[in-house]
Amino acid sequence: MPALLDTGVLELLRRRDLRVESLVLKHYPPVLCPHVTGEYLHCQLKARVSPTAALQARTYVAAFEVLTVSSRTAEVYADLCHALTTRDITLAPAVCWIAAHALEHDLPLLTTDRSFRQVPGLQVRVLHPRFTRVAGT
């Protein structure tokens, strides 16, 4: 069964984190959503990477299947935001959009962000980047 990757896990995969590589093989193929793709590319620009590195980042994300935003995604997003509001839970809009994609497609989410645990019904696997081992190190 595929899994949706968030921005942190996408970066860990790029760095060849052994746990992430293992999970991705278990949940092959990994997929992205437009919000993760946008966040990832924005972080590259914010870090002022070289034009070559920026092109490599674009090439890297282009290799993944990217889910599309549909009217159903918007409905899931709206329902999720309402459910969280009634529980007095406030999450960043990007977190809610990413969660909405995972919920819409019934995909587990691989993430480095613990706030996703507050989303009802979301299958979440939180990875802690500080404990990672990178292949070849």
Characterization of the model:
This protein has 137 residues and is of the alpha/beta class. It has one domain: Rossmann fold. The protein is built from six helices and five strands. The chain has helices at residues 7-14, 18-26, 34-46, 51-62, 71-86, 93-104; strands spanning 3-5, 30-32, 65-66, 109-111, 124-126. Strands 3-2-1-4-5 form a five-stranded parallel beta sheet. Helix 1 (7-14) packs across helix 3 and helix 5 packs across helix 6 (93-104). The protein is globular and about 45 Å long. It starts with a strand and ends in an 11-residue tail after the last strand.
Total number of beta strands = 5
Oligomeric composition of the shown chains: single chain
Shape: globular
Strand content: 5-15%
- Output the number of helix runs: 6
Structural class: alpha/beta
Rg value: 15 Å
Sketch the topology as an H/E string, one letter per element.
Answer: EHHEHHEHHEE
| Domains, number | 1
CATH fold field value: Rossmann fold
What is the residue-averaged pLDDT?
A: 92
The CATH architecture: 3-Layer(aba) Sandwich
How helix-rich are the residues, as a percent range?
40-55%
Strand order of the largest sheet: 3-2-1-4-5
Distance between the termini: 30 Å
Contiguous uncertain segments of 5+ residues: 131-137
What is the level 1 CATH name? Alpha Beta
CATH superfamily: 5'-nuclease
